[in-house]
Amino acid sequence: MRKTLSCAAAAISLTALTLTVPSLAQAEPATAATATAASSISWGTCSSQRLQAAGAQCAKVSVPLDWSKPSGTRIKLAISRIKHTVPASQYQGVMLVNPGGPGGSGLGLSVLGEYVPEYAGKNVGGAYDWIGFDPRGVGSSEPAVSCDDDYFGFNRPRYVPTTKAIETAWKGRTNSYTDDCDAKNGAILSHLTTIDSAKDMDAIRAALGVSQINYYGFSYGTYLGQVYATRYPTRVRRLVFDGTVDPRGVWYKANLAQDVAFDKNINTWFSWLASHDDHYHLGDTGPEVKALFYDTQEALYQNPVDGPEGKIGGSEWNDSFIYAGYYQSTWLDLAQVFAGYVNDNDVESLSNAFIDANGLGDDNGYAVYTGVQCTDTAWPKSWATWKADNDKIHAVAPFLTWGNAWYNEPCRHWPAPSRTLQPITSGNKAKLLMLSETDDAATPYPGSIEVRKRFPLAALVTTLGGTTHSNSLNGNACIDDTIARFLYNGSRPHRKAGNYSDKYCTAPPKPDPGAEARKSAPSKVDRLLKDAQKSALRF
Fold first, then answer.
1. Which of 54, 107, 137, 211 has the greatest CB tally within 10 Å of its CB?
2. How far apart are CA 288 and CA 242, in angstroms?
3. Taking a C-beta distance cutoff of 8 angstroms, is the pair 198, 381 a contact?
4. How far apart are CA 393 and CA 363, in angstroms?
């Protein structure tokens, strides 16, 4: 799984009462039915102006901190709702939304229904109650996890540990971070797993008074959806997964797979830059632009420059361009940053790009990201394993590899125990529409094929040649109309035999740096998701 629509991360103050949900720790059907019959939510006013303008209501739902101790300490989940606008006869139920991360704030995503196009002349988005929520530990949920808000600041060591001194410097940083996490957060660190969040989702379902939910998950949100559908197969109606996590790689191998995929995408961007050398003057071949990128990185390692907020070295340079591997909509702006620094010494724009990509001043998203990934399952404890695996991949895919390794290295010594993964069973009967792009780097395409195999009622729609992560409801009619049809009547593309996609769409054209093209901004859903995933943008 960072940008402009700040409603997704805005704090929520409520006039509503907090709802306490009966324990659903074992999630037995009889218990769930009792909770559904007995529960209701007192909705109040959201503090976010964006949510207010959209007609949203907000509340907080109380759930057990430890689902194995339902009478113990409680925590609160912040939720929002935008109610259906169609007549009762056309109402389709509730739709929970998760933006990914893990650690992304989903509170603002109750607005997502407004981006669903009409189908057969019907207001499809308006047929659902859209439910946004901040998962446990995130954003406006209580308590919110934080370890060190300055952790993602400037003045970083070199990423590739070619010397013992570099390795020691990074281990010092990551050990200090996990020590701070341990000191500042307490028991919640042991209860941040995806299984915990799936149980929380079922508590929200019960609190809403419904027997089934619909669900729209982006990126990591697709894994949360897989876990929920596996644990509660009778409680899901329709599922949409955009950018599907491969359950075989959770989480160490998944991060290694990302390294290779991101390198492919950044090289695609380099080739695109070369095709517009008359505009950017960075080189007229992909290899030439690539060489300039890494030469500039090394020069900044040797001689960091003073930016408005801190020193910019080679690590900051690298991270400033990470969005180019995620979203094609960022290519134009980041091309200006690259060319502006190399050709005109524009340090301020480079500094702003780094800040934009890292969510400085708030580590909540990253703290929950590590809390989930480090405890969902065991990570290798041996540094020799990490070093060997990442050195091998770095030799062929240098863009993300070591930066991503240090991003995740706290999982070697995370101050909470790892748990046992929820197996994602084959034969799940949920009605599922899956969306992917063949060159999505954050959730590589083979993961979508794998999950399709495990959900026999799933249909997979793939954008050929697309390099954007979680790109639905962003204006590609082939994708968006398929979603609208599915949400309208449950229809999915005909499932083909074998391990293939069931429908293919054409990727939008590569951006043109011409004057008119520069006026077109990234789509609103794209911006909404980036903002929701501040400092937690990996899945």
1. 107
2. 34
3. no
4. 28
What backbone phi and psi angles, to 5 degrees, belong to 528?
-60, -45
H or E element at residue 76: strand 74-82
The residue from 219, 349, 448, 535 that is catalytic is 219
Tokens of 267: 């090289």
Task: Give the orientation angle of helix 331-344 with respect to helix 347-358, to 10 degrees.
Answer: 140
The answer to whether the predicted template modeling score (pTM) of the entire model surpasses 0.90 is yes
Q: What is the pLDDT of residues 457-507, one digit of tens each?
A: 999 999 999 999 999 999 999 999 999 999 999 999 999 999 999 999 999
Catalytic status, residue 362: no
Is residue 440 part of the annotated active site? The answer reads yes
219 is a catalytic site residue: yes
Query: The tokens 């000191």 sit on which residue?
Result: 183
Cβ atoms of residues 136 and 77 within 8 Å: yes
Per the document, the length of the chain is 539
Which residue among 134, 196, 440, 480 is the active-site one? Answer: 440
For 241-290, how does the pLDDT look when each residue is reduced to its tens digit (9 = 90+)? 999 999 999 999 999 999 999 999 999 999 999 999 999 999 999 999 99
Q: Of 141, 469, 470, 472, which residue is the catalytic one?
A: 469
**Angstrom distances, CA of residue 277 to CA of 282, 329, 432:** 6, 19, 43
Only one residue has tokens 């050990």, namely 175
Two tokens at 494? 């005909």
